[in-house]
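Interim report, section 4.2 (structural modelling).
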Amino acid sequence: MAHALVAEKHPLDDLIRRDRMPHIWCPGCGIGIVMRCYAQAILESGIPVERHVVVSGIGCTARVPGYMNLDSYHATHGRPIPFAIGIKLVKPELTVTVFSGDGDLAAIGGNHLIHAARRNVDIKVICINNFNYGMTGGQVGPTTPLGARTTTTPYGNPEHPFNLPYLLAAAGAVFVSRWTTLHVRQIKQDILYSFRKPGFTFIEVLAPCPVGFGRPNDIEDGVEEMRIYRRRSQLVYRVPEEVPWEALEVDLREERPIYVGRFVDREREVFQPIRLTSKG
Amino acid sequence: MKGRGVLTGVHFMHGDHACAEGAIAAGCRFFAGYPITPSTEIAERLAQRLPEVGGVFIQMEDEIASIVAVIGASAAGARAMTATSGPGFSLMMESIGLAAMMEIPCVIVDVQRGSPSTGLPTLPGQADVMQARWGSHGDYEIAAYAPWSPQEMFDLTILAFNVADRFRIPVMVMADEVVGHMVERVVIPPEDQIPRWERKRPRYPAGDGFRPFAIEDEDLVPPMAHAGEGYRVHFTGLTHDERGYPDMSAETHHRLVSRLVEKVRRNASQMIRYDAYALDDAKIVVISYGCTARSARRAVADARRMGIPAGLLRLISLWPFPADVVRELARQAEVFIVAEMNLGQMICEVERYVSQPVKGVFHAGGAMIPPDPILQAIREVAFHGSRAGGGKTSAG
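Predicted structure of the assembly:
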């Protein structure tokens, strides 16, 4: 006879604000998967929890810090990166992660994103890309594919999307990778890797937004989007030797590869404020 | 001067530099800014000075990033500041509201220039004073000080840090191009005579149960835990409860916003500063601030020599506004005159508290209002009495 095993305690309990559950995310949303990967990476990082700080802007993904049992800051829309820079420069011993969405980081916060990468300031960015503004009900965003339907592009998106890995590689990030919410081990591994990698790191995670992006674009639900990821994800080891940077542009509606992998892993001098004395 | 925090001594100093030295003396160890005339010399001075004292200087990509980096630095425990002028001040407004909502102390220096828009980059204005009070959306209260000299650029910058930390609010130093670019005697006291009001800090070690926005004291100021101290705090610009958790209820919203406003109102007497000149028997009360108060003081002195009972109330704190002082003056004054380098901003605040006629001496900015139009206004009301009524005088 089988017995149900009820765990009294989950290893990640201490990292989640359980008193804030249930969360606000829709059924089929991919954000929680990535949050779990982040929590797991913190647990395995060997860095004391007290030294992890998480910062976000506004949007669905930006709610992650509110659910993490860490020092957490939910800043103005688009501004988590400068907020994180302020914290990091005052307390360099902290591991400061920005956990936010593509609209927050690449549209309203786009200027901060490219300048932080240019400076190579030691901030870890996890960017959930769900191809639309989810929180406000599925509007066109900076990553929405050309032609895709959203509530503000009812006739199809007339604009080209950002190709985020290409943008971040050009701007100077020392580590750039992309995965989908199907790639939970790779996401966790790359978050762990980024904690140890000095400088500006950027991990893009493609995530289903079945309500905001999926529904108007004929992706039935979150599971179907995961099937798309499984069918079409293609690992790339070297860009542009294997595929050109331009090929990293994503359009879920077309039967072409979604390239994933570590696209950039390089060394550049990390931004340090000028110091003439020891900190006094 | 290398390696010295407080440049004790008597100096002949530029106003913007005096502001920078005030920041250093106050213990400011983080500056993020973006170049903009006429405040740039503050950033330049701090780019040189902060590394000498172990502080951080960073030039950001814009003013939005600057104020947000300052708020982040303060969240990590630093005394942090930015400096700007009108266009940059406008860009900072949204996140000044964030600082008010998160109760993260910060200091914003606005060296005002002719405005609106790009206006007169190299010339003075005083037309951002209502923006300082009301510029971000929603109900919140802040403190703002108007220096009238390089000495006060030093002194009031220190006060701004103390008020910001003590009450966990954004504090503005509302300078103008005249005092920012003026070179004058500045006395910097010994380090142990620099006043220091500390941030209220948690009384208990980190552990379960710390509620970052729980009020333990009558001053309505919660103790502040910094990033990296183990308290695992959550800060959000959303309406939040005592734990810092978002709470979208009308009750929590009313309680939080009322406290943010009441926190400043209840403690206003500790923030208010003003200067009284020849007010004891004054029947004509001139109210002015910043560089315009220099002309107003001269006009009042000239009026006294003519036997006219005029006096000057110089606003040092624009916000909180010294309403009780103005109400008290209304018991003796026959008429008020407000002189300011805008087309009528603080005059609205004076009119709220007095029943007498209030006459304005205004100029849109670009050059100091000289003493003459203020004296002229004093003489008009002196010779025609309060029957002359309110009215606006252009100083141009």
